[in-house]
Design brief:
It is globular and about 40 Å long. The protein has one domain: Leucine-rich Repeat Variant, CATH 1.25.10.10. The longest helix has 16 residues. By secondary structure, the protein is mostly helical. The protein is built from nine helices and no strands. The model has no long low-confidence stretch (mean pLDDT 95). Helix content is 75%, strand content 0%. GO terms for molecular function: protein serine/threonine kinase activator activity. This is Calcium binding protein 39.
C-alpha cells in the first residue's frame, strides 16, 4: 500500500464518496482502523498531511447518516491530533474553527447520554484542539 499510496487512495477516496451508503460507511470504518493501526504509521502520517483527504473527511462529517458521521469522526480526530500538522491542514482547520467547534459541541449528543465515555473524551479533546488553533 505504501508503494502505491497515491493510486490506492485515489481509488479508495472514490469509495468514501460513493453514492452507496454501505460502501461509504464501511470504507470510512476500515480507513479509521487502518490509520489507527501502529503498523501503518507511515501510511497514516502521509494520509493526514493531504488537505484533499481532510476536506473529504470533513464533508463526510456532515453526511445525513449519523453512522457515516461517526465513522468520519474517527478519521477526523487523527488529523486533529497530529502534533505536526502541515500548514495547509492547519489553515483549513483554522479557517473552519468556529464552525467546527459549534458543530462538534452538539455532535452525537445521544452517545454522551448513553454513557459512551471513550467517545465523550475523544470529542472533548478534538474540540479543545480545534478551539486552540
Amino acid at each position: 500500500m505504501e508503494q502505491n499510496f497515491d493510486r490506492f487512495f485515489k481509488e479508495y477516496n472514490a469509495l468514501i464518496s460513493s453514492s452507496n451508503y454501505v460502501t461509504r460507511r464501511e470504507s470510512l470504518k476500515l480507513l479509521s482502523e487502518l490509520l489507527l493501526d501502529r503498523t501503518n504509521f507511515n501510511i497514516m502520517t502521509r494520509y493526514i498531511t493531504d488537505p484533499q483527504h481532510l476536506k473529504l473527511i470533513m464533508n463526510a462529517l456532515r453526511d445525513k447518516s449519523k453512522h457515516i458521521q461517526f465513522e468520519a469522526f474517527h478519521v477526523f480526530k487523527v488529523f486533529v491530533a497530529n502534533p505536526n500538522k502541515p500548514a495547509p491542514i492547519r489553515q483549513i482547520l483554522f479557517m473552519n474553527k468556529d464552525k467546527l467547534v459549534k458543530f462538534l459541541k452538539t455532535f452525537h449528543e445521544e452517545r454522551e447520554l448513553d454513557g459512551d465515555e471513550q467517545f465523550v473524551e475523544e470529542k472533548k479533546i478534538v474540540i479543545s484542539e480545534v478551539a486552540g488553533l
